[in-house]
Amino acid sequence: xxxxxxxxxxxxxxxxxxxxxxxxxxxxxxxxxxxxxxxxxxxxxxxxxxxxxxxxxxxxxxxxxxxxxxxxxxxxxxxxxxxxxxxxxxxxxxxxxxxxxxxxxxxxxxxxxxxxxxxxxxxxxxxxxxxxxxxxxxx
Amino acid sequence: xxxxxxxxxxxxxxxxxxxxxxxxxxxxxxxxxxxxxxxxxxxxxxxxxxxxxxxxxxxxxxxxxxxxxxxxxxxxxxxxxxxxxxxxxxxxxxxxxxxxxxxxxxxxxxxxxxxxxxxxxxxxxxxxxxxxxxxxxxxxxxxxxxxxxxxxxxxxxxxxxxxxxxxxxxxxxxxxxxxxxxxxxxxxxxxxxxxxxxxxxxxxxxxxxxxxxxxxxxxxxx
Lengths: 139, 222
What we know:
The complex is a heterodimer. Chain A is an alpha/beta fold. Chain A contains 5 helices and 6 strands, in the order βαββαβαβαβα. Chain A has a 6-stranded parallel beta sheet, sandwiched between helices. Chain B is α/β, with parallel strands linked by helices. Chain B folds into 2 domains: 2-120, Rossmann fold; 132-216, Alpha-Beta Plaits, CATH 3.30.70.1450. Chain B is 31% helix and 25% strand. Chain B has 7 helices and 11 strands. Chain B has a 6-stranded parallel beta sheet, sandwiched between helices. The radius of gyration of chain B is 22 Å and the shape is elongated. Chains A and B meet through helix 3 and helix 4 of A and helix 4 and helix 5 of B.
């Protein structure tokens, strides 16, 4: 499949690498040219230096024909706007977006965006870990 | 009216003081701590610290009872989110956003923020208006009505020069409004004769600009 990843940080670059390893056609966008360093030296896909809010950059990255788009820059608001562009203007069939703020993630989920909230996940997992340990029981 | 202003830069702070003088109830939200401290000396309890894209910040500022939210930060994505959340989540009846980079205008339109202000676009429109180059200039964009009011000059080589308005083969979804000659404007009627140098205003549905241009402007040399 054809995949576009906006934001080449730890998350974006890892998904890019995994999907490219599996033989998918992956393009990556980041506003920092240095972010290319996060990708393997033999990176088979494309790397586009530019801002994900810039429609020309998204088009250059193949948004109009991508099967899926992953949005994971470090800004929640930037991600939410880019995800809506991908969905509403380019009708990308699968758009997943990282949103750190649980409140915004929940609201935009309601509006139909597929959001992933690492904060909520951490809260769940950590709370669960605490609850699952018996502690220093005073038996 | 209760008005919430997001972003305490020059625009936001001047808006705040002006609207307060007009007797409105205003809350200004500023996320930068240093800037907030300065604003607080001037506006006291009217200004609140915080990132207005955080829903609880908006809620504590009383977004639910706001009649109007104005987002004038220097970040277009923040302005978009503030307005979208205010409108869609809290039912604020009117939102106004500042567009910093005119290339982001379509993103505001996309999420239904119809009232936007862009300094660059405004100045560009003024330049086009003051220096007409036989181009169609959009004067007013009536988004809700899906209509535009445009202005253009009748050039020497215009196929419309010398013709009466009733003789023109205008696109059906357009009407001429007025003709300005030597600084005097008149309502365009069928018997109005167009002359080179006339400034013509027209109302039209978006999409018929090219057709209108074709009828009224000289064909540009390729």
